[in-house]
Amino acid sequence: MDAFYASVEQRDFPEYRGKPLVVGGSPEGRGGVVATASYEARKFGIRSAMPSKTALRLCPEVLFVRPRFDAYKAASRHIREIFRRYTDVIEPLSLDEAYLDVTEDKQGIGSAIDIAKRIKQAISEELQLTASAGISVNKFVAKIASDLQKPDGLTFIGPSKVEAFMEKLPVEQFFGVGKVTAAKMNALGFHTGADLKKLSEEAMIHHFGKPGRFYYQIVRGIDHREVQSHRETKSVSVEDTYQQDIAVVEEMLVALDRLTAKLASRLQSTQLKGRTVTVKFKFHDFALMTRSHTVPVLIADKGDIFQVVEQLVAKADLHDRKVRLLGVGISNFETSETERHEKASDVQLKLFDVPPSDAMPPSMRGYGP
């Protein structure tokens, strides 16, 4: 979807249309970050994850609105219903993005391009929103293609064009290559896919670690990952960004208590229990810190989780540090149906003192709301 949150706001409130609009953040620039910027705001250089203060400096006339996640979720559900008219093999990435495998399309259309056009038309007519589609032979290339002609774009990269396309692509546009990795590639003299293609697989791994094996494949247009319509849940988490930084530990605990209640509600709806609790802190200078602890038994109850959260906060060095974002998550879920249906009354909790830990389980890295 194109600038999804902002587009929903402009659709629902005509007074926002044609104006630079930011969802999230603070109109006073005192805290918070941009969740989504409208295309009018992007012309000024405003981007997602940008501090409110920076957005205001770039465009003093920018409008800030609070997120309405119920509205975004409702639109997302409708969009998924449109997808299901054409295929059942759908892998959602977020509320506004998904992979679709249309190898066997339900309507027998026989053309991925035509299916994409019909989906885009349905979204436009039924939701008054625009979407951009990328079409290719694998997930990696399709993902990159979907970003090439936004907004309201449609890009097809056929089998015979994939390798040449990857050779011309700047490394900064490789999906999965962040700013740090891109800067390292540039420093080594690698600026395009063609540059990377000169490296052997061993050299790729030497320079970039395990991801080097993936880069070696995708620079040649090779990606064997299937579209997974039922992905296993690795973690469940909630977080919140605050308009004003929190500097008092007691206030942090109040905020974390509310987040833990939301987390427990989600766990109840999914019937999941986990062992590893993680607390996430983002400070006013955007430094990120996490603390994790694994308990010996499965937990899902709010009180049990918060008991661990309190001990993690007590062990963290939070003195004189202002927090702008807090998050709570749980991972390390049960692996058997017996554990899944285990009743809480049968569990004898024995939560030990939580040691300080900077390590965060891989499944929790970068978790979001």
Automatic annotation (TrEMBL):
Record's GO cellular component terms: cytosol
Active site: E97
Catalytic activity: DNA(n) + a 2'-deoxyribonucleoside 5'-triphosphate = DNA(n+1) + diphosphate
Cofactor: binding details: Binds 2 magnesium ions per subunit.
Keyword GTP-binding appears in the UniProt entry: no
Assembly behavior: Monomer.
Protein name in the entry: DNA polymerase IV
Originating organism: Parapedobacter koreensis
